[in-house]
Design goal:
- The complex is a heterodimer.
- Chain A has one domain.
- Helix content of chain A is 56%, strand content 0%.
- The longest helix of chain A has 15 residues.
- Chain B has 2 domains: 87 residues, no CATH class; 189 residues, no CATH class.
- Chain B is built from 9 helices and 8 strands.
- In chain B, helix 3 packs across helix 4 and helix 3 packs across helix 9.
- The radius of gyration of chain B is 19 Å and the shape is globular.
- Classes of the chains: A mainly alpha, B alpha/beta.
- Chains A and B meet through helix 3 of A and helix 6 and helix 7 of B.
Amino acid sequence: MKAKITPADGVREILRKRVPRAKDLDDLPDELQLGEGGLGLDSIALVELLLECERLFRLPPPLALLDGPPLTVGLLAEHVRASACR
Amino acid sequence: MPVSQAARRSFDFLERCLSHVAEHWPQLSLSAGGHVGRLRNRLSQRWPSPEQVHTLFPSLSRHEAATVAWKIGGIEARNRILARYLEKDGDRMLPGLMPRPAPVLSRLHPPLILGFFHVGAPHALGAVFEWLPVPVLALRLGLRSPAVPTLTVLTIEGSTQQRALVFSRAMAHLRACGVVASALDFVSGPSLTVPFLGRSLELARGPFAMARLAGVPLVPLAARWYGGTVEVEVGDELVADGFSSPEICERKLATAATGWLENYLRSDPGEMGLGLLHRLVLSSDK
């Protein structure tokens, strides 16, 4: 039987696929920031990541997500989970 | 006080006076500012010097390089007067700078990105945007309240995430068939470097990445002074498709945009912005 992939796993899988720094890390903790001081994504890479999440998980445009506190792995996973529940 | 310092102060004073005159007679003030700036450059032989112009355009004779330097001095004086006025009074003056729509604007079919360079009259671009048939979202450093009702301004200052938010808003604006306007030669985030006038020029990656991700054309444009009013030159649509990788796609777009600018400036070197000229001259000194 195929194991069900949670939003958190899906987000981590995308990060490992797209972000060079994420590939080298054993763990991607919830509190790890996606931008400065974390995975080091620049503004364009951050938008591209969110566009891919938007496409894969059929999310609404993530403007509210960017208009909040520094984006972390956990916040993105929670956004995907909450959008899937709607 | 040395003569050069006294002369500089006198010209600064004259420009300040002209920016006050602009409140009532904008076209007269800007036109006069152009003559004052030309004279200032002719006397000082600086900002830019004929040698600096000649470095970038070696095919010009010494006299031609000096004439180009005078023109650049005149354009810069107009730009300083306009910028000083806009700082004080928002964009109230802008609509009067382009009394009629330029015919080239009918070639624009939104959604699209207008990519401009700091040449000619960049501060007056709001007057051009007023004539576009759809709302324009302008990305600039610092906020300014536009008087043009169809123009929204977002600042590209801030953290990576704040810039990503602005980028996403611009993408949403394009999805709604709007026009996004952005400088190509001002770098506040990710950049790419392309050949330009025999040297290299660092450009903002954002507008090229946006054209690629939104699947919309990027159109290079430049505003230029004509007396006290503004004209606009528009290039062909540059389309981001059929490339093997995002990097190649963005580089091709950037190279095409600077190619358009290079042709534009080779046909009229006097339209070169002083800041851009200094960047290029400094890059060639290294």
